[in-house]
Amino acid sequence: MEWRYFTATATSNLLVERRRKHQSSLSIGFRDDNIYCREKDRLITSEDSDEYLLASAEINTMVNGLCCSNDNEEKQSKIWYYQDRLQTLPEKEVELGMDNNVSYNRIYVTLDLSLVIKNIERTDAGIYRCHGQEGQEEEYKFNYRIEQNDILAILKDQRDTFIEIGNISRWEEYRVINLLSVTTRFAVSRMLDLVYLRQEGIILEIISEWGPWGPCEKCINNQGVKTRRGYCRVKRQFDKTVILDHTSLIVKFFNKTPMLPCKSILLQEEFPIVSNAVRYLPEFDLEEECKNCTKVKKKKKGKKFKYRKQYVFLEGAHCAISCPESDLQSQIVWRKDSIVLKQGISRSFRKTDTEARVMVDSFSTLYIIDITKDEEGNYTCYVNNVNMMQMKVIVVSKSKFWTLAFMRHMGYLGFILLLSSFCYCTGLIMACRRRDTFKVLPEKKSDVEESIPTVCVENEK
Q1: What are phi and psi of 331, to 5 degrees?
Q2: I need a surface site. Which of 19, 82, 292, 361 has the fewest CB within 10 A?
Q3: Cβ of 250: how many Cβ atoms within 10 Å?
Q4: DSSP string for 21-88
Q5: Do the Cβ atoms of 129 and 138 come closer than 8 Å?
Q6: For residues 208-241, b (16+ Cβ closer than 10 Å) or e, as one string?
Q7: What is d(CA 9, CA 14) in angstroms, rounded to the nearest whole number?
Q8: Where in the numbering of this chain does the Ig-like domain appear (predicted)?
């Protein structure tokens, strides 16, 4: 069985950690590492919502879609195509970055045909398809529709309050209080915008789109709990008692938009009344008991790494570090102080930084650019779940570096002067103590005095 993956990784580390713990949606959902997945051999229905996989991501996040070929057919090259939301224009090939270093490209395709879009922008919203040049495997409908969420609808300090957890009975209460009440309001409200939608034959319903079940966890006596996420969605239906005006802009919009995320920016722009009613609705994590769960062995504290290294960098330096004993087929994981550095995702540990400074590229090489004290810490890498290397990165400022260098050389110079002074004083002391043993050399007359004869002159009387 093959799966189609779609990732939406948020720039906020808190949001990333929260999403890793939960999963969701009927044909889509978050799996480990924030991956949306879609079963290839699923039953394709005639519903418009099955035309593509709906994925929501915040602005400036990273999106990753995987395209695979049919196992029963000969492998063929695939191309990614883009089309606008309403499909008014023909699809065109996705424009990829051309830099040889893929980490510098905002949009690129990896060796396994995965499409990566970094720092997603408003213009990236639309439908993405992956198939051959002649339309091979289009019948499988491996299409993705990207919609941006309004990050302002998620309180930065209270993100977890937008997720409720419980069993099926608790979800029924959640559905009645949150979903059914809003659906009923849309059906009976006398607000002009909602009345106009009903007159056009548009019926809006708030639903939970369920994701796949996660693994059986929290094992006690071979019994555990599994969860799946119910994403809040605005689903449209057409009133069969109303004759649709296909020239109407609203009908055209909803004809190509069968479903939208509750926190969608597009919904906020086009229908603010609807968006204000649904954008703060929480999502739901359904829990269910499961059996035959596998206990995850806890890693022993203090488990040794195969390699231990320490690097001292001057502030502002750049570095690239590879994990030892790894190759292209290895599964490599980098961490910084227990934070996972995901492949192809740039990060920054500075609050006021506008550009990412730390990144692990598609070849699992760790890059640190313009290093500062914020990037200082313990880095570890794991190869196929083996503790491979523990690395401590120390950053020193330029002024401190030169001061330490000067003090280090002053130490060398002081040692030399001290040693020289000691030798000189020792020589003086030894000479003074043994001064009686020195021989006294006789005085030697000069050659000039020896060459001059002595003449005595007597006075004449």
Answers
A1: -95, 110
A2: 292
A3: 17
A4: T----SS--EETTTEEEEETTPPP-SSGGGSSEEEEEETT-EEEE-----TTS-----EEEEE-TT--
A5: yes
A6: bbbbbebebeebeeeebbbbbbbbbbbbbeeeee
A7: 11
A8: 67-143, 282-397
Eight-class DSSP state of 458: P
Give the mean pLDDT of 29-34: 38
Q: Which residue is it, tokens 């979903």?
A: 179
**Separation between Cα atoms, residue 47 and residue 30, nearest integer Å:** 22
- pTM of whole model > 0.70? no
Tens digit of each residue's pLDDT (9 = 90 or more) over 33-64: 445 555 554 544 556 666 777 877 778 777 77
For the record, the structure tokens of 378 come out as 């313990």
Place of tokens 């794991």: 382
Alpha-carbon distances of 66 from 40, 59, 170, 197, rounded to whole Å: 12, 20, 35, 37
User: CA 183 → CA 157, 187, 231, 271, 274, distances in Å?
Assistant: 29, 6, 16, 15, 10
Question: Which letter, b or e, does each residue of 318-328 get, where b requires 16 or more Cβ atoms within 10 Å of its Cβ?
Answer: eeebebeebee
Q: What is the pLDDT of residues 318-357, one digit of tens each?
A: 888 889 888 877 888 898 887 888 887 777 777 667 777 8
pLDDT at 137 > cutoff 50: yes
What tokens appear for 6 in the block?
């779609």
Identify the residue whose tokens are 């200082």.
376
Query: What whole-number distance in Å separates Cα of residue 332 and Cα of residue 350?
Result: 25
CA–CA gap between residue 93 and residue 80 (Å, rounded): 6
Nearest to 63 by CA among 80, 78, 41: 80
Cα distance between residue 333 and residue 331, in whole Å: 7
List strands edge to edge, sheet with 92-93. Answer: 53-58, 143-149, 126-131, 79-83, 92-93
Retrieve residue 360's tokens: 């692990």
**What does the DSSP assignment read for 93-118?**
E------SSGGG-SEEE-TT--EEE-
- In 3-state terms, what secondary structure has residue 404? helix
Q: What is the mean pLDDT of the chain?
A: 76
Local structure of 321: helix, strand or coil: strand
pLDDT at 14: 33
